[in-house]
Automatic annotation (TrEMBL):
Membrane topology field: Peripheral membrane protein
Protein name: Plastocyanin-like domain-containing protein
Chief subcellular location: endoplasmic reticulum
Keyword field contains Ribonucleoprotein: no
Start and end residues of each Plastocyanin-like domain: 98-207, 422-580
Annotated region (Disordered), positions in chain: 376-400
Family that this chain belongs to: Belongs to the multicopper oxidase family.
Functional note: Multicopper oxidase that may play a role in the maintenance of inorganic phosphate homeostasis.
Cellular localisation: Endoplasmic reticulum membrane
GO cellular component term, pick one: endoplasmic reticulum membrane
Amino acid sequence: MEKRRFLGVCLLVAVLVLRAAVLGRGDDGGRLLDPGKLEMFVDELPDMPRMRGYGVAEGGKLVAGNLTIGMYETMWKFHRDLPATRVFAYGTSKETATVPGPTIEAMQGVPTYVTWTNHLPPRHFLPWDPTLTAAAPGSGHSGSDGHSLAWFTAGFAATGPRFSSPAAYEYPNQQPPGNLWYHDHAMGLTRVNILAGLLGAYRVASPAEEAALNLPSGEAFDRNLVLFDRDFLADGSLFMNRTGNNPSVHPQWQPEYFGAVVVANGKAWPYLRVRRRRYRLRILNASNARFFRLSLSGGLRFVHVASDSVYLARPVPTRAFLLAPSEIADVVVDFAESGNATAIVLRSDAPAPYPGDPGDKAETVPVMKFVIDDDDDALSTEPDTSSVPARLTSPSQYAKPDAREAVLTRRIAMYEYTKEGTDEPTHLYLNARSYMDPVTETPREGTSELWDVINLTDDNHPLHVHLALFVALEQRSLRDVDDLKECMMARGSGGGGADACGLERHLAGGRKHVVPKQERGWKNVFKVRPGTVTRLLVRFRPLSPPDSRRFPFDVAAGPGYVYHCHILDHEDNEMMRPMKIVR
């Protein structure tokens, strides 16, 4: 059987492409649930099922793992007092499928083969908008990346124009140890399929590298936290508004989805019993559009050890931090620093949408509670021998960012288009082009580029580039951004038209924003502030060893890769562009 190679290196997501359903529409009938009716902190935080992405041969040698993970329509309990909810979920069977799906635990350098099987019904239970460029039946496919037009329905009855064959997907896992996630990526349907539950965490471990760090380890003390927001009807159904903000243009699409209920590992406002010791928390924001600005009650601090999929050079302590959709913060929290407190609440005070209007004060909302229990025999009483080292990676371990290695500079402009008379958004483009327009970005494998990302919108856009890692070098505010936007939109130009519209003049005297210390390493998602130019050093080559120039597969094969805003509602409405790697 031919194997379809998917890159673990540098990808935030192990992208699964499918078309769950394209014929049905959600029914908004019923009464919207008042979230105040649900008591907080009554459900224990689940640890999602863990699937080992490798095998162990005789003598303890690690060998490639073979997994089969299906997509099922099933029922899931989000809260003790809420009726079971209809969801789409990943699992080894309908009975064991969970939201989020199982955590795949891979080993660095050991391939994981996954056969993804689609058992979803022909009709979606959530509303979808047929006026968007969407997954539609058609007639390969990059050997190392998921593609939004490579979806498939149950039994491969219909497939996308970029789908190749129903074979196992290969994840080489040759990148440095770190955190990723997998989710549906079907064109025009990503927001509804993830909202329905098709997402899960993916870890790559390297015991040889990580043991010396002595960070908290083991299932009890090293936990994934997958956060998202949802709305429900009183009968437990997921609620997604089926009326668009511009119904004459898009009958269902809304610019952003926000829910009033915060969910962690599939439970609304759960609790976790902990000891007074260190815990490692790998926190993923899997929301459609909500940003979380996280803090802990009692002034307890986070110590960041990694950002997205890569370890930081040194740990960074914070009292609060901002997490955009698809970002991952890998932190250590020491509950021994909680004094006499018996409970610590993880909370968020980020406005929605983010950053909101100037002067707006966001409400602080709970996310989950840590219950500090010194007496429960069910919790481990072993002494805490973990620590956080002064240095996490050596200077020679990973490539050091150096802007001088860039072979060219690209301009990437972010646009939002509105309906005349209402000023309501209709769609969003990168470089004034739709997703279906021909490829304009053709980086060469083994090189690095500077990308100047010009955000001409009022939103903060978490930019994600498939295949590549990047470092944010600087972020500067534009002056008279409306004047620049008017000029560039009148020219119908991409980022290349910025110079003709006086980009440097608009940057002169603009505020320079400090990149937070915990975000100064290699990342695969970065928050592009509204009205700014963000300079990224984008690396189209492996991170380790530092002198590597080639990926362990043919990156030039197939239709290529994508880069996009990871606000799912924006991504689904064309804020995504194709990218072709050349050799």
